[in-house]
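Bench log. Compound arrived from synthesis this morning; before running ITC I wanted a structural hypothesis for how VTB sits in the protein. Inputs:
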Amino acid sequence: MRRELAIEFSRVTEAAALAGYKWLGRGDKNTADGAAVEAMRLIFNQIKIDGTIVIGEGEIDEAPMLYIGEHVGTGEGEKLDIAVDPIEGTRMTAMGQSNALAVLAVGEKGSFLQAPDMYMEKLIVGPNAREAINLELSLEQNLKAIAIALDKPLKELTVATLAKPRHDRIIKDMQGLGVRVFAIPDGDVAISILACVPYSQVDVLYCIGGAPEGIISAAVVRALDGNMQARLLPRPMVKGPTEENIKIGEEEVARCEASGVAVNTVLKLEDLVKNDNVIFSATGITKGDLVEGVTVNGRLATTETLVVRGNSRTIRRIRSTHNLDRKHPDLKNIIL
Ligand code: VTB
């Protein structure tokens, strides 16, 4: 992938974050998401790539823009597969909570596992504990192995997870082992990255979250030399076997079978993302532990973006000041 695409893709998440920010704290997550989707698509279509959305806003009949299979870019240049989450944390954006991001990951054709939008169990660690994870074993065995790899006692290990009722039991069990647990309301992509970088407090991510978010996380975990294992879980296994959940679960399994993806089976990092030639970009919408959120002063807005190139392992933080009056006219209608 041409290295200058890194800056191009950072412009895509910047635009999505500016569009999402317009709807910050307005209680309307769908409108916020729609604006970010439109902004992302607009900028993508200015870039000289022959891109295909492989993880996006849904199937063609569900999403008018950035649906799975949609072609983006000018059509010239490299054939690339693209995974997007225009707002990772629509609830956080609508409710003005921290850690909302606009994110994407780009790879060569065929790089990303074709996971449908269903639940995924995720276990992620940074480079020093790469060899210590194995989802075939219990969480307790994993945490003990990770603590040994990091050369610290369990009571100094910090695991991040999502504060969801489905994790109540596991959070108690981890605390019972002496582990420190950070449970955040939403947004596991940001905490997946924090588990892989040395300057953060987080050693491990363990949660059941979204599969699309899991694939995007896997791309950046590869680029940060961390490790991840995952398992796709049909809805009844996570939310209980109600009639509705069983029906959704059957559809999820059918989608997995259609794209040859294994369900309830341990997936390794190389199954999730095939190689290191990836670019990841995340721009903060609201202030978070990973990046700053959008701030606006008159007609000037600032954004902070984390861009990671897998091939070179370069991690960039780009702080941009945007003159909102000088934006592309189509974008001006969507952002502030
Ligand atoms: C997951 C997680 C995301 O939403 O998709 C979660 O991966 C949805 O969980 O990071 P529920 O179905 O329990 O609401 C996020 O937290 C935010 O998009």
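What the model suggests: The chain is about 30% helix and 25% strand. The chain has a mean pLDDT of 96.
ITC booked for Thursday regardless.
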